[in-house]
Amino acid sequence: MKEKSFLQTQAYDSIKNSILSGGLEPGRLYSETKLSAQIGISRTPMREALQCLSQDGYITIIPSKGFMIRQLNEKDMKDSIEIRCAIEGFCTNQIASQAHTEKKQQLYHSLEQSLLSMESSLNKEDKLESFIHYDHQFHLLLVNYMENDEFNQIFQRLLYLIRLTSQDALAVKGRIQGTVDEHRQYLDALKAGDGPKAYQIMIHHLMMPLKIHEKETHSAGDVRI
Q: Could you report the per-residue pLDDT of 13-47, keeping only the tens digit for each?
């Protein structure tokens, strides 16, 4: 049983890393059998790994054919953003309303460090990848602070969609700096104990990729040939 669990984890990590690094391409059908042979494991742990990857939002399984890398569509973006608004908005209100404790002080310190890392990543060669990593870290700190297992599991399942949404939005000129500014404004409001302001900033921040997408879609519709 332990060996099976190890092989399943090996397959899961291998495929996930290939997706994130661009080794597996969206729009292409992949064979479970061929991947099993490439990784060097049997089809049973591979099938279990693919089920987990499907549940976590990385792939779409095509019955009797294989699987494809999940691509972002407007509904996925809208659904995931609305879920984040519900969870992170609640977390914001709870954190702001709680008494100042050592745990809360540690959260503020961790958020500050994450924000500083985001700012420093702007000068790195792999700027976008590094920035997205620390951006996600910032938001995970808020969710994990609540110690709500259901929140954590939902957020983990959304991470790939969040990544795809972030990549699209941050490609827009000025959006990276805008993200840093919004994080700073949010943290300042949270530290000041202004829950309503922090909540408003967070919802505005989370909704921004959807607003950018809607603006770009509208602009594309206005193009005349």
A: 999 999 888 889 888 999 999 999 998 899 899 99
Cβ atoms of 155 and 163 closer than 8 Å: no
Q: Give the Cα separation of 140 and 6 in Å (integer).
A: 26
Distance between CA atoms of residues 198 and 191, nearest Å: 9
157: helix, coil or strand? helix
Residue 161 buriedness (CB in 10 A; 0-12 / 13-18 / 19+): buried
How many whole angstroms separate alpha carbon 118 and alpha carbon 131?
Answer: 5
**How many other C-beta atoms are found inside a 10 Å radius of the C-beta of residue 204?**
13
* Two tokens, residue 166: 């972030």
Q: How far apart are CA 78 and CA 75, in angstroms?
A: 5
Contact call for residues 43 and 12 (beta carbons, < 8 A): no
pTM of the model: 0.85
Q: Are 51 and 177 in contact (CB under 8 A)?
A: no
What's the token pair of residue 77?
């973006």
- Amino acid identity at 119: E
Checking phi first, is residue 171 left (phi over 0); if not, alpha (psi -120 to 50) or beta? alpha
